[in-house]
Structures are given as structure tokens and as C-alpha cells.
Write a structure and sequence with these properties.
Radius of gyration of chain A: 13 Å
Largest interface: A-B, 23 and 21 residues
Oligomer: heterodimer
Strand content of chain B: over 45%
Shape of chain A: globular
Largest sheet of chain B: 7 strands, mixed
Radius of gyration of chain B: 14 Å
Structural class of chain B: mainly beta
Strand content of chain A: over 45%
Number of strands of chain B: 11
Number of strands of chain A: 11
Number of helices of chain A: 0
Largest sheet of chain A: 7 strands, mixed
Helix content of chain B: under 10%
């Protein structure tokens, strides 16, 4: 199975900050990467698909980049509603696998 | 409003089987694949499988091969997840989710999720 390693595992940031989360794949997955956000007690919410395509209605402060084995999710101008846990998911190879998650909270 | 309505929480004994339903509404059921993803308490996400709502074709994670079955009833726009030979490791929230980026294509971008069904395996 392809392993996805997210870093950092957790971070604290302030409103207005620029935040970057990385996702490293154990093998080349081309552009087959998705980003989700989850808050406690709720299902995940789709943010980015195909590594860099913004899902409809997701604010433009979110962006994704990368290919192959290294990917990033960037939030430009952090907002209070952005707290939660972020997951990457690869679908290049079955089984599709998720990263362990990055917990984002506010300072 | 597009919805995936899941069945209620359940408690199962070890060795038993579970069956969770996921009813789709307010969109064309045959247009989009449905996936199942689970989340153990305090843990991350784990993909289990998908079903093509047109053909009924399925694909599963090898981890669950032989124990998992995903089926559908098109007449009531409902997808089912069955998991057999349950152990305490199967205690989790089970989510169904729509692969909604492209019509009748497997794209893996899960844009609509059910609220989740909590299944507890305990004697």
C-alpha cells in the first residue's frame, strides 16, 4: 500500500497567517491526491482534488500543489472557521489511502 | 438539497455481521459512484470500497476482501455496506460518500458525505 505522511502532525496558528501542510507519498502518485478538512463530529469536507483543483464553493484562500511524491496544501489568510484536521488521500493505487491527518488549532 | 441518509447506530457481537444503508436523494443516483470510508474512534480515515451505481461493479480494499460486500437497490436509490466476522477493530464510524466531480466517472473526489453510522463491536 502507498503510505502518505503528513507534516506537521499538528500546528497552532493565528488568524491571518499563511499555513502550509505537506503530504509525502511513499511512491509516485502523479497528481492523484485529494485534500479534506474534518471538524470533530462531522464527516470530511472536500477541499482540493487532482492535487490542485479547488472544489466548488471552497474559498480561494485554499490552494494545493505538487505532483509525484510531494504535495502541499496552503491556506493564505487563516480564518477562524479553518480549525480542524486536514487529511490527504491518494487514489493512484488501490487501496486508496489517507495520511494520518494534521490538526490545526488557533494560538 | 443533495443528501446521503445513513442508517442508525448499531451494536454487534464479535463474529456477527453488520449492514449499513445509505439512501441518496435530490440527485440522479446513477450519475455518481458511492464509496465507503470508515473512521475508528480518535483515528484517521480508511477507504473500504466503491460501487458503480449503473453496473453494480465494485472494488474493495484488499484489507477487507472476503468480509465486505457493497450492494445497491436502484429502485430506492440506496447503497448497502455489509461487513462480516466483526471484531473489536471494526468499531468505527462508517461513512458513505458520493464521488461527485464527474458524471459516471471514478474520480475519487468525495463531495457529499453521509453523517456516518457508528457501529460498536462488543460482547
Amino acid at each position: 500500500d502507498i503510505q502518505l505522511t503528513q507534516s506537521p502532525s499538528s500546528l497552532s496558528a493565528s488568524v491571518g497567517d499563511r499555513v502550509t501542510i505537506t503530504c509525502q507519498a511513499s511512491h509516485d502518485i502523479n497528481y492523484s491526491l485529494i485534500w479534506y478538512k474534518q471538524i470533530p463530529g462531522k464527516p470530511p469536507k472536500l477541499l482540493i482534488y487532482d492535487a490542485s483543483n479547488l472544489e466548488v464553493a471552497v474559498p480561494s484562500r485554499f490552494s494545493g500543489s505538487g505532483s509525484g511524491t510531494h504535495f502541499t496544501l496552503t491556506i493564505n489568510g487563516l480564518q477562524p472557521e479553518d480549525f480542524g484536521t486536514y487529511y490527504c488521500q491518494q487514489y493512484n493505487t488501490v487501496p486508496s489511502t489517507f495520511g494520518q491527518g494534521t490538526r490545526l488549532d488557533f494560538k | 438539497q443533495i443528501r446521503l441518509l445513513q442508517s442508525g447506530a448499531d451494536i454487534k457481537n464479535p463474529g456477527a455481521s453488520m449492514k449499513v444503508s445509505c439512501k441518496a436523494s435530490e440527485y440522479t443516483f446513477t450519475g455518481y459512484y458511492i464509496h465507503w470510508v470508515r473512521q475508528a474512534p480518535g483515528q484517521g480515515l480508511e477507504w473500504m470500497g466503491w460501487i458503480n451505481p449503473v453496473s453494480g461493479d465494485t472494488e474493495y480494499s484488499q484489507k477487507f476482501q472476503g468480509r465486505v460486500t457493497v450492494t445497491m437497490d436502484m429502485s430506492i436509490t440506496t447503497v448497502y455496506l455489509e461487513l462480516s466476522r466483526l471484531t473489536s477493530d471494526d468499531t468505527a464510524i462508517y461513512y458513505c460518500a458520493r464521488d461527485g466531480v464527474e458524471w459516471q466517472r471514478l474520480r475519487w473526489a468525495l463531495d457529499v458525505w453521509g453523517r456516518g453510522t457508528t457501529v460498536t463491536v462488543s460482547s
